[in-house]
Amino acid sequence: MGKVILHSAVTVNAAYEAPSPEQWLELDSDSRDANLGQLTLADAMLLGRKTYEGLAATWPNLGGVPGMETFAKRINSMPKYVASRTLSAPLEWNATLLEGDLTESVAKVKENNTLWVSGCGEFAQELAQCSLIDEYWFGVHPHVWPTGPRFFDGFGPLRLELMSSTQYKSGVVVLRYRPANG
Known about the structure:
By secondary structure, the chain is of the alpha/beta class. Helices cover 26% and strands 26% of the residues.
């Protein structure tokens, strides 16, 4: 059986859009290579409508951008499963629309796939509230940001168990958690 892994870059205080990540994302070759390695562990991406539309408008154009080629090749070629109440099939960008109950449709796709969830928006929070996330991987960037949405605002309680932590030269720390049993 596969699993659902949520992966997100956040500030120390868990802001994830605040107001534009370019102002707080710390990128170095070590953490970038680790992110690519983490992405290769997944069989497919699991996306909500907003993330799907944003990524589908961006990633197909990044294949020729220096430093992004390998990421773009991986992301563009991966199967994508999209949960949406407003989109209709067929979808573009190697994507399949999930239909019916979210818990049932994710469980069915997860039977044979490790699914990668990108971001911390509404869809990620819905997955968390439905206990569908098996692992939380946060790339914590060394900034505290005063504005913007935060992943855990209005959510919880949820007890997490630390699986691992890795620090990079940039000050980024990747924290891997799983929901604690009981």
